Amino acid sequence: MHERVKEEIDLLKRQFPKLEHGEKLDWVLLPDMALPDGRFNRATTPVMFLVPASYPQCGPDNFFVDLGLRLKDGANPPAFNANGQSSTGPAPVAGQWGWFSWHPQAWRPAATVEGGDNLLGFVRGINVCLRGEESG
Question: In Å, how far are 19, 23, 28, 61, 92 from 12, measured between CA atoms?
Fold first, then answer.
């Protein structure tokens, strides 16, 4: 698994050069992900997600953001939980975290990174969720 995850993290780093990850490649942090214009109370937020031990057969599930993230009108976004304990585990990095209960509609990995679902595709799905186009 580690070689596959390392390859996928390298792929993510091309779009997110400030990316951080766990020593065991069990989590990924995008420290300043751009948010959709005019939807939230800020322009960027850190986004973090866990990489399951059974990856890539089992894809990531849920993602963490800054606890203070709110919609422009001050309301909680759909599927947002204001604590650092997601249904897949606690936030692996200390801080003030909330999390989105968001799940890919399907997960179809392949033998090659490019041939099926991967971490980059998961991050694209996070963007869809943050745009409000899918609540998970």
Answer: 8, 16, 10, 17, 19
